Amino acid sequence: MSQLIWNGLFVGSFYALVALGYSMVYGIIKLLNFAHGDLYMLGAFSGFAMLGAMGGLVKSQSLLALFIVLLLAMLTTGLSGVVLERVAYRPLRRAPRLALLITAVGASFALEYGTRIVAGANPKVYPVRLGGTTLHVFGARITVQQLALVGVAVALMVALHLLITRSRQGRAMRAIALDPRAALLMGVDVDKVIARTFFIGSALAGAAGVMAGGYYGKIDFLMGFIIGLKAFTAAVIGGIGNMQGTMLGGLVLGLLESFGTHWLGGEWRDVFAFGCLILFLTVRPTGLLGERVTERV
Amino acid sequence: MTAGDGPPVKPVVGRGPTFITRLMESRWLGWAGLAVGLGAPLVIATPYALNIMTSAVIFVMLAVGLNIVVGYCGLLDLGFAAFFAVGAYTSGILANELEIPLLATVPAVIVVTVIAGIVIGAPTLRLRSDYLAIVTLGFGEIIRIVANNLDITGGPSGIYGIPGLSAFGVDLSEPVVFYWVTVLIVALAVLFAARLGRSRLGRAWRFVREDEDAAEASGIHTYQVKLSAYIAGAVWGGLAGVLFAGQLSAVSPASFTFLQSALVLMAVVLGGMGSTPGVVLGAVFISLLPELLRDFADYRFFVFGVLLIVVMIVRPQGLWPHRSSESARTAARSRTGPPGEPATDSKGAS
């Protein structure tokens, strides 16, 4: 039982990290960034490339090396997110929503198969494998590495929360989410703030990608597809556009999946998760913490 | 006929449609396409070529079905392969278990795909349109995983030994005959979809796509209209699945990945959303392209992705856009100007 809860929370913190980027972008420009899961994949691959380049350091100080790589990969995916926004989404910001969604699908495709061209179709094995001392807490087996990863995830989320609620930058983001045109009139540089939002969201996804690579050990160019869907599910469960809600949604989805897997068997895990998505959209489309949004004409 | 796509102020008098425009809107075009389709085996009829051509024609049917949802009604469906799968599996399983001919499964396939369309469409179509996109994406995965896990669908290896197409005791499963039958069935489906797009319901779909709030305010029940588009798309997809089962006589989950859905979407977007000839041409193009570009197989999907972005930015109406125009009969009825004025329609490209 406590093992199931811990597993759920562990996976859930990954989902939350990826879902935050989804939710931030959605909150600000009302775009479902389908390519978000692929930025997670990009993070895993750039981390893989950097670990390969670092060579010797990886062997002696694997956790430290992983942290350095984590930061660099966050920078890489963050910049990729900014480029993506600049090239694919900005020209269409005033276009119909359908055009934006189709562009997002195209971006996702381009990222996936671009990575495939560069890195090859076969799965790659991470040179660092986290696994190690096991602790027993309330009958659940917890490894130190799991704790470290959850710690990093929580630290990133707290930092994001502080950024959004306390900083000038965060205030600008919230202003744009409320009303982009009024924010522009009040002197907010909308384009710049949106670019920064993409940077932060993509960097979080990249961090999750590196951590998943280090923990599970195997990455491939389609790994972002399912996690993107799961992250969206998490965001919907929590309330898309709402930061605390999204974090909560990630954890809830992790727990649901963990118990669902236990009851139904592993092969039904994804079906169960998407079933939850459809159920939530039917029963409570605004999510657990989301407020009712009226569409403005 | 205004050539631009801005808001038309007054009809341009004295400059008729160009030769290409007239050609592209000619009513003989459909017949020409059908003739090309039927005549193709006379040019090349190796088993391999026939196989590719049959697949291409089935792909046309899929694209026309998705065009109803995406092109006419403006709803993004990213899990269209799911309905394809539902149709293929339903007809395959029924034909195998009950030992009935493939065509006899068609009513059951229609019922099942309609139910599938309602199950997915009913909860999500009430919400913002972008939710539909991602729910259909999830639905596509659900169907594939379910087919992979259940016993009745044969698990990962799928079902096989599905009887070929036959009607009134005549065996139609000979490759050339099957190809011709497929072309005729798909031609009917294309025609029907195009007529549906011009019907009262079709006009409602386009209205919802252009401006949902205005449509609602004009008395269109947008939810019902959207659901009907979704269900119509599902039925088209399911019927394409029946043809698919008949062609391969085997169905497995590997045929119904997200890639398949994305390719159908690509065909619709590239050809021109809402434009029947554009979508048909787009589908033929997308399905035959891999055969022409074997050496670039690795780059193909990357190029598709980039192409989707470029088309949306540079030419969102597609390569062969839909032009809305009144038929001569309704134009004559609604004409208010003096009789001498030429009856150029005042609507631009939508």
From TrEMBL, chain A:
Localization, UniProt: Cell membrane
Principal location: membrane
Topological relation to the membrane, as annotated: Multi-pass membrane protein
Positions of transmembrane segments: 6-27, 39-58, 64-84, 96-118, 138-164, 193-215, 221-240, 247-265, 271-290
CDD domains on file: TM_PBP1_LivH_like
InterPro entries found in the cross-reference section: ABC_BtuC-like (IPR037294), ABC_transp_permease (IPR001851), BCAA_transport_permease (IPR052157)
UniProt entry keywords in alphabetical sequence: Amino-acid transport, Cell inner membrane, Cell membrane, Membrane, Transmembrane, Transmembrane helix, Transport
Family that this chain belongs to: Belongs to the binding-protein-dependent transport system permease family. LivHM subfamily.
Protein name according to UniProt: Branched-chain amino acid ABC transporter permease
Gene source species: Actinomadura alba
